[in-house]
Amino acid sequence: MSEVDSKKDIFRKKLLEKQKEAKVVRKIVLTVFIVLIIAFSGLIGGGYLYIKSSLEPVDPSDQKGIDVTVPIGSSVSTISRILEENDIIKDARVFKYYIKFKNESGFQAGNYKLNRAMTFTEIIEILKQGKLMDDVAFQITIPEGRQLKEIASIISNKASFSEEEIIQKLTDKKFIESMRAKYPDLLTDDIFGENVKYALEGYLFPATYPYYKKDPTLEEILEPMIKKTSEVVAIYIPQLQEQKMSVHRFVTLASLIEEEATEKADREKISSVFYNRIEKDMPLQTDPTVLYALGEHKDRVLYKDLEVDSAYNTYQNKGLPPGPISNAGKISFVAALSPEDTDFLYFLATKEGDVIFTKTLDEHNKEKDKHITNK
Fold first, then answer.
1. Would the pTM count as exceeding 0.85?
2. Cα–Cα 20 to 30 A to 273, which of 22, 106, 230, 260?
3. Which residues does this entry assign to the site Important for catalytic activity (predicted)?
4. Residue 4 banded pLDDT, cuts 50, 70, 90
């Protein structure tokens, strides 16, 4: 080999080594870059989820009153800390910055009756108006899974209005339109859809509502229930838009889950059955819709009941009914948006409150014979 060839060979070797080194460096840089991006995304995503969670009520289903004292001269930081210590809010810092962002002020000292189901808006309103626990004239508790007529009866037992007057107000077009003007994102045109029985069915949130006047108007009694629904549903609007699901469909599906669920039920699995059936173009065949169509409560749905001629009858009609059949709690709203990933097409509630999920009609009938037919 000549001296020139030897030099060329050495040059090529050095060039290859540099290329290898450059390649390794690029890989290292790329790896570091990807790791940083993932870490940054995780930090941002985690921060967003934490703040989103902190803005929500501690426990929407816990209406138990908690005595909270706000001393005279308390700063926003002090009030935030007191609320966190009493488990009324999740994070004092988030609450403090929320107040600053909203430019809220004028909080009053006193002894308050608050609960873990309250939203930031409700807490701030009470603290600003100085509504002390002794100021409550009466309270109305609306449980989950109640229909419009049942809610009218509950209100009538607490306030000076008959059930007929309450139903008349809840079905009054002028009142409904006034509520739509205040809560347009919640009360959409869908509530007036074809075959919808009651426009406001499912839109009166289950919670305990304090009233500070002995004789409030019906509007003053009913609006907080609609407002509460609006506040709860607003949390899920981004997800609804992402999934291209209307608010009305969301509220309707949540009401079906609420009606079918037992205390032991896994609502996410019940939700998955409804999603799977809709995807396979199968009727939902859920008994509560038949009872709603019949307009009565029964311990057991008979075969003849399944023939009721109604758009709400999900044995005769595919897809969701025209509207909600009751009011749903937050856990049913969550399930309506987050069904578990399953292959289940059937479920059966036993008399003990357990819910058995199956994939085929044959499996379902076997469980039915075991737990229902032979009982």
1. no
2. 230
3. 260
4. very low
